[in-house]
Amino acid sequence: MDKSPDAFRTISEVAEDLDLPQHVLRFWETRFTQIKPMKRGGGRRYYRPQDVELIKGIRHMLYDQGYTIKGVQKLLRENGNQFLIAVGHGDVAAVEAIAQRRQAEEVPLTPAAQPRGDDEMLVGQPTAKPNRRFFGLGKADDEGPVQSGSGKLSRDNRALLQEALFDLLECKRLLDQVR
């Protein structure tokens, strides 16, 4: 017996419907605060229909359009949940209406307020530019990305490594899809 379209779905039902592993849905809950399944005793998740629609939009942007998680977060922040829900449905008219409304509300930026380019959204566009200091160029042998004696990476270097890790994980995901 099929459920009503308005019925809540378990994580296994959502994962099966969207062809996603359950751990990916749990991970996305940590990255997208807009996904808020209801949790019952024992931590069992129940997704509302609007949660499932939002996840469809997120999945489409990440897997089909090649956006990074950071890029989808920016889309959600700038355009709202309804935008991604419309994208997930393939509702081009709604997407265009939301984009036009946003353009009408947008105030032109002065050259000083233009984005610096460090918030790119497509996979393969590094958000942090590597510098000579990170690779230890132009420094003594005992100096490098890790400060001597401290055993810790600087904040900039941690950001570079984190970005490289995300890029590698995305490459792995794409390669796994091809296989």
TrEMBL record:
Keywords: DNA-binding. It comes from the Bacteria. Residues 134-153 are annotated as: Disordered. Residues 10-78 form the HTH merR-type domain. SUPFAM superfamilies: Putative DNA-binding domain (SSF46955). Pfam families: MerR_1. One of its GO terms (molecular function) is DNA binding. InterPro entries: DNA-bd_dom_put_sf, MerR-type_HTH_dom, MerR_fam. PANTHER family: BLL5018 PROTEIN, REDOX-CYCLING DRUG-SENSING TRANSCRIPTIONAL ACTIVATOR SOXR. This is MerR family transcriptional regulator. The lineage of its organism: Bacteria, Pseudomonadati, Pseudomonadota, Alphaproteobacteria, Hyphomicrobiales.
